[in-house]
Write a structure and sequence with these properties.
Largest sheet: 8 strands, parallel, barrel
Oligomer: single chain
InterPro entries: GH, GH_1_N_CS, Glyco_hydro_1, Glyco_hydro_1_AS, Glyco_hydro_1_beta-glucosidase
Structural class: alpha/beta
Order of helices and strands: EHHHEHHEHHEHHEEHHHEEEHEEEHEEEH
Catalytic activity: Hydrolysis of terminal, non-reducing beta-D-glucosyl residues with release of beta-D-glucose
Bound molecules: 4-nitrophenyl beta-D-glucopyranoside
Strand content: 15-25%
Strand order of the largest sheet: 1-2-3-4-5-7-10-13
Number of strands: 15
Radius of gyration: 21 Å
GO molecular function, one term: beta-glucosidase activity
Protein name: Beta-glucosidase
EC number: 3.2.1.21
Length: 472
């Protein structure tokens, strides 16, 4: 390869972190090894009809046994950082009480392997795999789960905190609350708007208590963060009714998280919009002070924008968002129609629209001045194809990444303090309710042989990392 010139500026800010992301249940496998107990996703994936083809994470990408090979792959691609999640049921199998040394040992080995290759570990404490024992006690409807989470955070930080510089409490609590308790397409598969809001608040409480627990254990230099899948909400038109639809969804998707975490209060309009669903009595005195403990950065996951319009009274929308047959995840009758953005679709059916990422980043620059941002997930599912030589081609993923990295570059140039980018995902993996039918990896996994093959997108990304530039 041509030597990289260091005398000319790159496209991205100095010190920009180039990474890739995964999550424990989606890649580890070894579901019954090393003292791990079942999580709500083991239970859910075993419930007929919940996951496509009856797929489970029992084996997944077998990362638990192949982590050395996977870290070697990351090093070959030149990754500066690796975002992964810790499995609570590995580290604290009963969901409370004693730590499981064998579980901690696995992450110990993984972290040491990363550090030996010069890759910075970025750990997420909770990427949806709640110990089933805690679900049996009420799961996220039980306030006590938030306190159990803080205990688990303490255990993890005590053992790994000397070597992991960046910690994230929760990944996408919107999905845990509203897909887990609203539409029911994620574990634990419940369908109650009131429960979704209860779970939402207890997840935020867990975040706040978790931040406190982490700060008490970690060195002062450690970074503590939260990852949200904020919606890039775009009204269909500037008609007042469409703008109001956008306000409602912005409230239920974004401000319902950002206001408590960064301002210490729930938005008044969201409380009003959900008044028929709940009286919010689950919010106790002192909770918002806990939830709004300062954090060092915000992680955002972005895939596609959310285009909304006022419901048409002539043609009222059913309680659905275009996901045929699914209940709405929204916790109130929103009176909103969800429309697809223009543009091509990924294999998930999600429209490709990189401007949404630019819009989201600049909005956060304006609303939360000075807060460092990380794109903790961005990427796309596509069917890839291999040629007779065994090479795996994924031109649509390359185009998707190019467009979205350009949006990050533009945002940084326009003053957004965006400090890094984590591609979702390093490996093809268990895509939740879609099982193994959707491939998000830049590295192909043959789930029969567990053979890894970097796709064209991986080579493309490695070159972007090496040069700090997008190809012209
Ligand atoms: C995120 N939605 O999930 C997760 O953090 C990853 O684990 C996942 O593999 C990735 O995005 C791709 O799906 C989401 O329906 C799942 O709005 C569903 C939604 C959003 C994010």
């Amino acid at each position: 390869p041509a030597p990289v010139r260091t005398d000319v500026p790159t496209d991205f800010p100095v010190g920009f972190v180039w990474g890739a992301a995964t999550a424990a249940y989606q890649i580890e496998g070894a579901a019954a090894e090393g003292g791990r107990t079942p999580s709500i996703w083991d239970t859910f994936s075993r419930t007929p009809g919940k996951v496509r083809n009856g797929d489970t994470g029992d084996i997944a990408a077998d990362h638990y046994h192949r982590y050395r090979e996977d870290v070697a792959l990351m090093a070959e691609l030149g990754l500066g950082a690796y975002r992964f999640s810790l499995a609570w049921p590995r580290i604290q199998p009963a969901g409370s009480g004693p730590a499981n040394e064998a579980g901690l040992d696995f992450y110990d080995r993984l972290v040491d392997e990363l550090l030996a290759k010069g890759i910075t570990p970025v750990a997420t404490l909770y990427h949806w795999d709640l110990p089933q024992t805690l679900e049996d006690a009420g799961g996220w409807l039980n306030r006590d789960t938030a306190y159990r989470f803080a205990e688990y955070a303490t255990i993890a930080a005590r053992r790994l905190g000397d070597r992991i510089p960046t910690w994230t409490t929760l990944n996408e609590p919107w999905c845990s609350a509203f897909l887990g308790y609203g539409s029911g397409v994620h574990a634990p598969g419940r369908t109650s708007p009131a429960e979704a809001l209860t779970a939402h608040h207890h997840l935020l409480l867990a975040h706040g208590l978790g931040v406190g627990a982490l700060r008490a254990e970690l060195p002062a230099t450690a970074q503590v963060s939260l990852t949200l899948n904020l919606a890039a909400v775009r009204p269909l038109s500037t008609e007042p009714a469409d703008l109001d639809a956008a306000r409602r969804i912005d409230g239920l998707a974004n401000r319902i998280f950002l206001d408590p975490v960064f301002r210490g209060s729930y938005p008044a309009d969201v409380l009003a919009d959900t008044a028929e669903v709940t009286d919010w009595a689950f919010v106790h005195d002192g909770d918002l002070a806990e939830i709004s403990r300062p954090i060092d950065s915000l992680g955002i996951n972005y895939y596609t924008p959310t285009v909304v319009a006022a419901d048409d009274p002539e043609h009222p929308a059913p309680r659905q968002d275009g996901h045929a047959g699914e209940l709405s995840p929204w916790p109130a009758d929103t009176g909103v129609r969800f429309l697809p953005a223009e543009g091509s679709r990924t294999a998930m059916g999600w429209p490709v629209d990189a401007d949404g990422l630019y819009e989201l980043l600049t909005r956060l620059r304006d609303d939360l001045p000075g807060l460092p941002l990380l794109v903790t997930e961005n990427g796309a599912a596509y069917d890839d194809y291999s040629d007779p030589s065994g090479a795996v081609h994924d031109p649509e993923r390359v185009a998707y990444l190019h467009g979205h990295l350009d949006a990050v570059r533009r945002a940084a140039a326009d003053g957004v303090p965006v400090r890094g980018y984590f591609l979702w995902s390093l490996l093809d993996n268990f895509e939740w309710a879609y099982g193994y039918s959707k491939r998000f990896g830049m590295v192909h996994v043959d789930f029969a042989s567990q053979r890894r093959t970097p796709k064209d997108s991986a080579r493309w990304y490695a070159e972007v990392i090496r040069t700090g530039r997008l190809p012209r």
